Amino acid sequence: MDALSGFDLTTFSIMGFTIMEIISLGSQAAMVLGGVVPFIPQYIDIWKSRNADGFSLFVCLALLIANILRIMFWFGKHYELPLLAQSIIMIITMLVLVQLCVDVKNRTEIISSKQRKFTDFEREYFWKWTDFLSYVEFIALFSLVIGLLTYIFLNSVIYVELLGFMAVFTEAMLGAPQFLRNYQKKSTLGMSRKMVGFWTCGDCFKTVYFILREAPAQFWICGMLQVSIDISIFLQVFFYRHNNVPPIDRTAKSAIS
User: Fold this and answer.
1) Are 32 and 86 spatial neighbours (Cβ–Cβ below 8 Å)?
2) Long-range contacts of 73-79 (CB under 8 A, 24+ apart)
3) Is Flavoprotein one of the keywords (predicted)?
4) 14 partner at 20 to 30 Å CA-CA among 197, 205, 251, 255?
């Protein structure tokens, strides 16, 4: 009992690292890689089913813009490096997911539709292009414009704070396109429930992390908004549960009845 009473968790070490240091490193690793994990089930679902109709590509757009803005925000107000690393990895992940969706849609078209490209500058087909290069071109142009503005106004506190707010607010709204798509279809068919589950767990962890690490207020306020949208999507899964039947299955049931 006396030995236990003298035990200090903060000084106990494993391979030269204290328990608190290991917990800190673990939480930082979770922040860096945790954002990618939710999209693994969705990627697998699309790849296996060869159907990307249930997933909104505007989710990828929201995350690409949010993380580009967050990287630019770092130059004006240095925050923790794990958050910067998370943004870089997330951008790569979203581009990979976009490429898969575009490839699947092109391969599964029975009648080839007209090719739509970013350089056509057709507003109604924004982010609905038929070639992956168009998505890369838009992201490159957006990064160039924001990078130039950041270079010019880097010393402006108002601009830097606005940049940070827009970054976390855009990320907080990433679930909104999926929520809207589900609402329009009155179904969550094709959307990975595991993805939304990981979103919710990750966003809860992230919000608590922001609060404990005393990150800028924009981060944790928008984190709470993000959790609210995640929960709303889960409610859609419940409300539209009777509509989540593949079209083929519905036809078969109608024939039987």
Assistant:
1) yes
2) 73/160, 73/163, 73/164, 73/167, 75/150, 75/154, 76/150, 76/154, 76/159, 76/160, 76/163, 76/164, 77/160, 77/161, 77/164, 77/216, 79/215, 79/216
3) no
4) 205
Which residue from 231, 188, 181 is spatially nearest to 58, judged by alpha carbons?
A: 181
Q: How many residues does the chain have?
A: 257
Tell me what pLDDT residue 106 has. Answer: 87
134-176 confidence digits (pLDDT tens): 999 999 999 999 999 999 998 998 998 888 888 888 888 888 8
Question: Mean pLDDT throughout 113-130?
Answer: 89
Strands (E), the chain: 13-14, 17-18
Give the global pTM: 0.74
- Residues 102 and 104: their CA atoms lie apart, in Å, by 6
Block residue for tokens 């396109």:
177
CA distances from 123 to 115, 117, 146, 184 (A): 15, 11, 21, 21
Single-letter code of the amino acid located at 234? F
* Mean pLDDT estimate for the chain: 81
Q: Which of 67, 19, 30, 20 is nearest to 205 (CA)?
A: 30
Rounded-to-10 torsion of CA 246, 249, 251, 253: -140
Distance CA 119, CA 140 (A): 13
| Residues 192-232: tens digit of each pLDDT | 888 888 888 878 877 887 788 777 777 778 888 888 998 99
At residue 190, the 3 state secondary structure works out as coil
